[in-house]
Amino acid sequence: MAGATTTPRHRAPSPFRRGVAGLWRDVRESWRPVERVWDYVPISVMGVVVTALGAWAVWGVGEDSADFVIYAAGACALALVAVSIVTVGAAAFVLFLQVRKRPSGVPETLMAGVEATTSFRCPTLRFWPLVQVATRMVEPPGVSVVLEPDGAELVERVTPAERGRWEHVVRRVAVTDIFGFASLAFRRRWDQPVRVIPAVGRADTELAVRRATSDGFSHPSGKPIGELVEMRRYTYGDPLRHVIWKTFARDRNLMVREPEKAIAPKPAMVAFFVAAPLDDPSASTARLFLENDLLGADFMFMAEGATGPTANRGEALEQVIRSSAHRASQADGLGALFHAVDRARLDNLVIFAPASDGPWVDKVLTLTRRLPMPPMVVLTVDGALDAARRSWLSRFLWEHDDTTNPTLLALPALHDRLRAAHADVRVIHRPTGARLHGAQIDALRSLN
Taking the CB of residue 381, how many other CB atoms lie within 10 A of it? Predict the structure, then answer.
């Protein structure tokens, strides 16, 4: 068809684009199910290898060739692995008895990306020979744990990576020997809810969005909305179907009906939060808009996975937190928002979306064609803006760092796609709070 345009579709990134670091993370994630079973096996992978080599040296080469040096080396290796297994097993049992009686010590509310010290203290077992103790947070997932020695105990510092709400705290406590031959781990679960809120965002004053103060004037090209209950004198051009003929017949005054004046205030803005991968920077911006009244005094907000919109800031922030469990939906909730809100109010629609391509883009573009005015799409990116162009080898070996943040890599193409649909796109750089303009976005194209 003449004049038809083709909308670019979302393509899954090639695994080679993630670099060696990204592939290594995939390998570690695939190991997680096996690790749960391997935790209860007292010998490590290295211990299995050393045991096999030691057995081959003792009962293979050593006996056949009567080489006492190889025989002695193999026997020492087997003895060292055996001692490590016994020591680690006894230490893990003692540690389990001590940890199971202690509270979780995790605060009920944490902030994504902000380090917090818990009251949980893990024994160091410093008087046990050859052993080391380490802990990892299994639930909430993605929490970075740093242990610092403090006498006979380890002080735990945690840094959540993403927002969310969990009903339990699960730690994995591992005991290993200093050689890496033996390892035992157990998991301790506490029935304590944990809430991780988005990090505090920053933004310039120019991000105060259009008509956020609700000045009360209707759009000059918009249609009259409301019941025809008000009356005024007829003027040239008024439709004759609005003339009140009974009044004209009674007193010869030509009056017409017009829409009523709104008395109850309408929400200044309607906002929707898109949950998708890499949406935590966008969650910080949504929190900023809610807490700093950038959506106006009267607003309606809905996040992915919510049952309906809300006008309460606390409930809106809670919806953003819980949306982390609905990242697979990717803007499916836009349809529910469209039916729950008066269509006349959607001319002030703000969409908080991640700066990464995905199925949500097609859903937003489809909704845009049904709205009286294009929505404002607020994208948030992370990473260093002044990063120098790196070599292909550098990007292949290590891509996911501050200089090549995935949101910066995907921004130019995503920005072009939304602008082609006439959306009002605002791009925020979370570390500085600045709004990025065309020249800055074009400069990011060299990172690909």
Answer: 26
SS (H, E, C) 274-321: CCCCCCHHHHHHHHHHHHCCCCCCCEEEEECCCCCCECCHHHHHHHHH
Give the H/E segment covering residue 123. Answer: strand 116-123
**By C-alpha distance, which of 325, 332, 423 is closest to 379?**
423
pLDDT of res. 287: 92
Q: Which residues touch 125 (CB under 8 Å, ≥6 apart)?
A: 91, 94, 95, 131, 133, 175
DSSP secondary structure code for residue 171 in this structure: E
Q: DSSP secondary structure string, 318-371? A: HHHHHGGGGTTTSSTHHHHHHHHS-GGGGGGEEEEEESS-SHHHHHHHHHHTTS
Contact 268, 213 (CB under 8 A): yes
Of 76, 85, 74, the residue nearest 47 (C-alpha): 85
Instruction: Give 85's pLDDT tier (boundaries 50, 70, 90).
Output: very high
The pTM assigned to this predicted structure is 0.72
* Closest CA relative to residue 415, chosen from 384, 389, 437, 431: 437
Report whether 381 contacts 441 (CB < 8 A). Answer: no
Instruction: Count, in order, helices (H) and strands (E) of the chain.
Output: 12, 17
In DSSP terms, which residues pair with 104 in a beta bridge?
none
Helix (H) or strand (E) holding 88: helix 68-99
Q: Domain spans of the chain?
A: 36-197, 205-213+265-447, 228-259
d(CA 333, CA 341): 12
Mean pLDDT over 68-72 rounds to 81
Burial class for 238, CB neighbours closer than 10 Å (0-12, 13-18, 19+): middle
